Records
---
Amino acid sequence: MTAAESHVLLFDAKTFAKVRQFEGHADQIVYVVFSPDGKNLASIAWDQTVRVWNPATGEQKKSYSLTNGYPKSVAFSADGQRICAGSSSGEIYVWDMRSDALSILTEHKDEVGFLLAGKEPHTLISASADTTVKLWNLETGVVISTLSGHADAVKALALSSDGKTLLSGSQDTTMKVWNLTTGQELFPAQGHKKDISALFSSSDGRYLLSCGVDQSAKMWRVKDGKEMLSMRGDYESGAVAFSASNTYAAVGYFKEIWLWNLVTGEKIHKFEGHKNSVRWLYFTPEEDILYSSGWDGSIIRWDVKTGKILQEVVTENGIDCVALLASQNLLALGNWQGDVYLYEFSTLRKIHQFTAHTAMIFNLYFSEDGLELLTVGEEGQIKIWSTQDWKLLSTLAVKGLKKSAIVSHKSLLFAITEKKIEIFSWKMRTPVGVLSQTTQPLILHVSPDEKDIFVGNTNGTVFLYREKK
Amino acid sequence: MLRSIFLGVLIFLIPLSLTAQPYERVLTFGSENFKHDFPVRSVLFSADGKFVSCQEKDIFLWDATTATKVRTISEIKYGVVAMAYSPDGKTLAIEDSC
């Protein structure tokens, strides 16, 4: 059985011989389906109609028209009495074939691309481009439950034979499994759902903070990867920091910074002052002061207890990345024009500036001994500068270089490229190894003891690479 | 003379080979179960209760208790449009077209 241009063809499943042809649709047929008892056949087409046929005779039994949108999906109810069509505009048309009475279900906000009969005769399950799946009572037209969790259009559904478990497949590249009775997701995804935007490990290396564009920040136990805490905000989170005792976490959600108590899991207060996305956060060892910087070009010194601004310095041309060399009281800022600004950290006084790249500086990093500064430019070059006189020591052209690159204590340079982390010898500036991934890495972070390399990916996961013994 | 060149080459090679893969992946924070590389086009239950899903050119079979992938079928030429089991659950039909 297949849908050709504008007629339905019926074939014998054993011999593949054509049995019958159903004429009537005025435009291309989209989908055909048999009723559960096999006595009816329904088809939908671009002519905005749903037609029900007798497969034994070829007779057209019903022709129903949609008043809005085009039919994208069709299903009989489990008892075969109702024919349901999902529309491109989000409505579900339900005709009772005994009375030809029409009811229109209007809860979906976008195309209904898949319909499936529920186990009970009066239920229907719908999948929509509005990212939800809904279970309907066809007698009352009321939604029994809404299954939310997909990040993009839901394209396919399947129901287990006992009617209790539902599979949903989505444009978001995931399949989800649901307990249809409770509406709960079985095997829910753990961790972030989208791009990781920042990583920060605790001073003892036991915990990791991550944040992402899914508006959440999370604390993980490094020992076994257990998610300890999830801190949800109102906007994309782009910066995160632990306090020295690991009691607090500061998370930048767009322009706001939220202070979380990691012991109780509660939000303490909000720091408001930045005019654009917060990109860097740092607690002083005494935990009384928090530093932040943002795309708005400002560096702000906050009183942690009160959330009040103690000092604010605004630089020209924004701030895209920050590196702190606390031992030398030095703060380096990189901006979109390719300039590096150097500040005395304790006073936030500018002491030097130089042009490092012709395009945006993605990332800055001080070497462990503080003698060198690494800058990662948008044009695909890593440059290494002397922190004594800010002279250029070396340039590395890295093909497909992404935003992040760091240096480890073993004098290794890790640079993110297309689905790879390329390892270079810091001293010799030569490639020495590659860590290949199937997911695209976005950001790198090195633990304080420099034994662990954390890599945040586009699929929301964070990989831990550990130094081989 | 020949010996000193030979030694020089050796000294240069040894540190390189020692640092070639100094790190190994040991852990993943967060996981997405039933993750595909492309949009999911169709889903099914197999007769023995496994989950079946397909993306562009692959069909995956998943264990329904552990949510792990147990089999991948990748001999798809153009792209899976639809799939269905025969009533006895023994045969999987795949529509493969551009």
---
Amino acid sequence: MSGPFATDVDDQVFEVESPGFFSSLQDEGRNGVAHLGIPRAGAADPVSYGLANALVGNSPGAACIEATIAGPRLLCHRAAHVAVVGAGVDVTLDGQRVGSGRVLPVGPGQRIAVGSTGLGMRAYLAARGGFDAPVLFGSRSTDRLVGLGPGQLAAGDRLGLAGNGEPMGDHLRPGSPGQSVSGTIRVLRALRVDHDHTGAWRDGLFDGPFEVDAASDRIGIRLRASGRQLSIPTDDLASAGTTIGTVQLPPDGNPVVLLNDHATSGGYPVGAVVIAADWGELGRCRPGDSIEFRRVSPEEAADALRSLDRHLADAVVGRYPLQAG
Amino acid sequence: MSTIGSGSSEELRRFGDAALIVECPSPEAAQARADAIREATLSGVLDVVGGFDSVVVIYNPRVIGFEVLAPLVATVRARPGRADPKTVVLATCFDGPDLAEVAAMSGLGRAGVQEALLGATLRVSVMGFAPGFAYLSGLPEALVDLPRRATPRPSVPAGSFALAGGHAAVYPQATPAGGTWLAAPTPFSLTLRRRRTRCCAPGMSSASTRSTRRSCRSRRPQ
């Protein structure tokens, strides 16, 4: 398919030669429409996504390619600058390994490929100027739940850029956020339950590790309690709004952590909500990973977000030297 | 645990560090309150989702925190319901595959189900589940307590009219469905689906059904 991206030949900068396992354009997603049943969508690992944009000088909110498990190979038709960010992601330029977390110039006829996303479930390829696609409800993101946006990348899709970009950074400081997978997910306890029933499952949630199930996707991370049974309150709850990071407790005892394409409301009991500072960790969780929930206080959650933002502000190092003329 | 009371029947609580939840006594109260909070356009608020007994206010924790936002939300009062809710006439051809089952379970008979629905003014209670999916309340009593299908249909076509969990709905897109399917899509319901985000909003609109008798006659085998 030719794709709903760039129709004018002059606008086509990249051509998708192979799409990878599941690749889509993502930005910061949609706001103000959840009450209409439209999910937020957007980058599932906002940390890696934000760093990829920052490297190539894009303003926050530019659309990147979100690669899952195994990324796409792009043929470049016009000179451009790209950066790939992900925990241990494999990047090649014309088959030669090049590093992730740094600005890469690509020229006509060259091929930039994102291989295995490494330690994380996802990696982000940003291009200077940001990828273009129709803006729907304020976002270029593809939504897997309801099918908004340009959809999963397919071989033959042509991608254009939305702008020209600003001065770029050069590379990421070693140890920057998002470059590892911790396996610990910090949560605030939530209260969408009948208080008489909370003790048993609440202990279960913090009792030990969970395994990330293969059925996990952008809608939710499905967990399996390893070697223990969570007891779930069976009370019928009225549907209520949900957010990214909502830890739902379906009757089968296997928690689901909602990700960006989640339905905007749900009726399952909620045990906890993942703090915003760890949403990137959620986006990096891959099937087979073992994760543990850790309960924190609201103050610790605020400190964690401030700390993450300090590290993010400090992560991009240097200035990529652009040639004049 | 921080809790801010704002009246006898309503509480505000944290829902993670990027949302708070307001408990409400009824769907009508929740929807009115959600509308009011949304229209207040408070700084840092990204989304306001009304449920059946709650409102979830989703905010950007880098812009505002619970301590500052909760008192602001608490001061936003719901306005009385709109005096003139917009009415959408929902042309419906009662020929769905579950009509006979609903007719039997409700004891109303086929004609009775149709007449009961034609006589009802349904109100958009909550939007959710999928874009443009409106939970319509106001079903006739005999149709409120019917069970969902034991096994959900893998898919019903967009525009189908169905009953589930005490509510009626027009499926805005082809979707798996646990509801009992009463009416196949009509050209009108498909138009409504396309215009749905503009013509239906929680608590603001009402919808009533009118049978498209002419098209029913032409489409029914008998």
